[in-house]
Structure formats: C-alpha cells, structure tokens
Design a protein that fits this description.
By secondary structure, the chain is mainly alpha-helical. It is built from six helices and two strands; from the N terminus they run ααααββαα. The protein has helices spanning 3-21, 32-43, 50-57, 61-73, 95-119, 122-140; strands spanning 77-81, 89-93.
C-alpha cells in the first residue's frame, strides 16, 4: 500500500471517528472528554486511578482531574480509596454513570445504523462490515 493511500485511509478513519463522537445525546454538562473518561473506566478490566485514566487517554492529568470533578459532581462516578494504599484512589462508575453510557451508545449506534441505511447500498453495507472486521484485526496487532 502506498504512503498516500495510508494517509488517506487514516484521514477517513479520523473523520468517521470524529463524526461518531459528535453523536452524543444532548446531556447538559457532559463534554466529549468526560465521555472518554467514562468509557475508559467502563472498559478497563481492572480498577483505574486518575493517572491510569490520563495515561490510557493520553490526556494531561489536569484535564482528567477536571473531568473527574465534573463527573463526580454529576453523580456519574465515585472515588474509592485503595485499601492497600490510602493515598491512591480508584474511579468507579455509578449506576447513573452506566445509564449515561448506555444512552450514549444507543444514540451513536442509532446514528450509524440510520446513516448507513440511507447513505449506503446493501452491498456497501456488507463491505463496511468486512472493513470493520479488518480494522479490528489491525487494532489487535502487536
């Protein structure tokens, strides 16, 4: 694959990713970085602290701290002290935080499904599903 083709594919993926990110349901006070923090905490198989979240998202710790404060104020997360080291805290989603994530997921999936149904032919939709499987394989490469 040519360098120009790789660059073009990368730009296309970014455009779609950004478009899907904008498909948040209207929720007062919840920014995209806050959603990213919620998703990161939810997806992690182990408990995460604020610095873990910052590392995972490649965000500044001050930005993560601000997002965590706002999420805590909205009742979407709890900070739980580490029983082994009281100086460390872990981030935990509340039931409301899980509900908000489910609403966001439904909204994004609905947008993608509606858009694919109206913008693509059935054959193109099948191609997108195969392309998705290929992107997943690429993402899993070490």
């Amino acid at each position: 694959m040519e360098e120009d083709d790789v660059h073009r594919l990368q730009q296309q993926l970014k455009l779609l990713y950004r478009r899907i990110q904008r498909e948040n349901p209207v929720m007062e006070g919840i920014s995209i970085p806050m959603v990213q923090v919620l998703v990161t905490v939810r997806r992690s198989p182990t408990a995460l602290g604020p610095s873990d979240v910052a590392d995972e998202l490649q965000m500044k710790s001050s930005n993560v701290a601000a997002a965590l404060r706002a999420l805590e104020d909205l009742g979407l997360i709890l900070r739980r002290p580490d029983t082994a080291d009281r100086r460390r805290v872990f981030i935990e989603l509340t039931d409301r935080g899980l509900q908000v994530l489910a609403e966001i997921r439904r909204s994004r999936q609905s947008w993608l499904q509606d858009t694919m149904s109206t913008a693509l032919t059935p054959a193109e939709q099948r191609i997108m599903l195969v392309a998705g499987e290929l992107m997943e394989r690429l993402a899993q490469q070490e």
